[in-house]
């Protein structure tokens, strides 16, 4: 019993070693032969060539959840509707009703967003 | 080192591969040069064409264009370097990890090209950072970029791991940071980095 | 489309004191333009855009022009009183002499707008504005509030010619960096002196390169 999974353990160890050995080799090589040359420019946060301004920790406005809702309505809905449409002829009445409820739920979200006025381009 | 080249080739024909650590190491390095995803002007279009199926830079192990300087080994200066862009280019070069190489692609990158006597174009990126391979052309054909890339690979292959000509990442004394020019009131300050670029002697 | 004279008359009728004059173009292209005074320029532009018949709703191009101070030599007939000796007697005689008079015309910066009508499918109508001089009075009213598309082009004119547009929403340099002080497209702009290495110099560049060569030779002699 205890030896049944032994080959798996060996394989697991081999898989780990396959990843870790080259990494440790590279690390050892760098540690002993390749001297570190850090400088202020190299250590800066931003990587687009421009000088970093301010802090990387900024707040995002909570109003972005509106965009998340719109995304859900127009994108995720399409993802679910596609297989439904493909298998439409073979589906029962109950499946159609379930899909209708799903779409109506999302339409409700759209109506709410519309009423909120977030569909108007500022 | 000690082995005779002819003997080595003969043994290779018989199925016995003999190599040195240096050759193996440099073979690994030259076959995985990752360029930085970074285009400046029209030469960038040719650079993009070089990576695509017809010319296929991936054959040489350079298919991975890294969007971050930290992961890139090679900077292809593909196009006109304006004086507004030059500090950014030098800063990006500074952010690249060692070993790093530079290919100056096209007439603008190596000398300013047709815009040389204008007010806003740098007269060659080699005024600020060391360039390994220059490609003339306006813009150079993808074949020219491949040629430059192979030239760079040969250069990497020939680098000894010890001695004064060893690659910069093995050399503690080698300069790590190149000064970023400042955008002054009339021009970049300084106008060139004397440690990298000296005025070439014009012979007539 | 209306002729340039009719447009001028329409502007004069709609905007009193618009100071609109016609600048004729004698070349075969005959693209005449309207010189608009800076004072009422915004009102004139608004009329050009909103007038039902002109409806110039699209500002296609904004350009700067640098006109240097220049000297005009004119031949003027002057009547002078000259003392002459006629028949051994000194007399005061009136004489008409042709003299060359030199007159300095101050330079100015000019801004040229090319206007089209997308609605009426006609154009271009070219209007110009001129600053008082090239040094300290370089302000012109911005037409960005009338044609939104003029924003970046006016910034470019500001950057390269130094015309300051009053009423522009965001007047910053657009091509050169913010610390830059010169205006490179002005005719008296001097290039930064980095001509140390010129493989094929010619004309002015040759002079500059030779000056550098002399410097290098002197340094070499000193060492």
Greatest interface (CB-CB under 8 A), with counts per chain:
B-C, 16 and 19 residues
The tally of helices of chain B reads: 6
Shape assignment of chain B: globular
Largest sheet data of chain B: 3 strands, parallel
Oligomer: heterotrimer
The second-level CATH architecture of chain B is 3-Layer(aba) Sandwich
- Average pLDDT for all residues of chain A: 85
Unreliable segments of 5+ consecutive residues of chain B? none
Overall body shape of chain A: flat
**CATH fold name of chain B:** Rossmann fold
SS elements, strand count of chain A: 0
Radius of gyration of CA atoms of chain B, rounded to a whole number: 19 Å
Question: What features would you describe in this structure?
Answer:
The complex is a heterotrimer of chains A (122), B (204) and C (223). By secondary structure, chain A is mostly helical. Chain A has a domain at 64-116. Chain A is built from 3 helices and no strands. The longest helix of chain A is centred in the first third of the chain and has 28 residues, at 6-33. Chain B has a single domain, classed as Rossmann fold. Chain B has 6 helices and 5 strands. Chain B has helices spanning 5-13, 21-30, 43-51, 86-95, 106-111, 142-157, and strands at 74-78, 101-105, 133-135, 182-183, 188-189. The model of chain B has no long low-confidence stretch (mean pLDDT 89). Helices cover 29% and strands 8% of the residues of chain B. With 223 residues, chain C is α/β, with parallel strands linked by helices. Chain C has 3 domains: 4-66 and 109-166, NADH:ubiquinone oxidoreductase Nqo5 subunit (Beta Polymerase, domain 2); 71-104, no CATH class; 191-223. Chain C contains 4 helices and 9 strands, in the order αββαββββββαβα. Chain C has helices at 4-14, 41-50, 150-161, 203-222, and strands at residues 20-23, 33-36, 58-67, 70-86, 89-105, 108-117, 122-130, 139-141, 164-166. In chain C, the strands form 3 sheets. A 5-stranded mixed sheet of chain C has the order 1-2-7-6-3, covered by helices on one side. In chain C, strands 4-5 form a two-stranded antiparallel sheet. In chain C, a hairpin with a 4-residue loop joins strand 6 (108-117) and strand 7 (122-130). The radius of gyration of chain C is 26 Å and the shape is flat. The model of chain C has no long low-confidence stretch (mean pLDDT 87). Chain B binds chain C through residues 83-84, 117, 119-120, 123, 183-187, 191-192, 199-200, 202, and chain C through 175-177, 179-182, 184, 189, 191-192, 194, 196-199, 205, 212, 216.
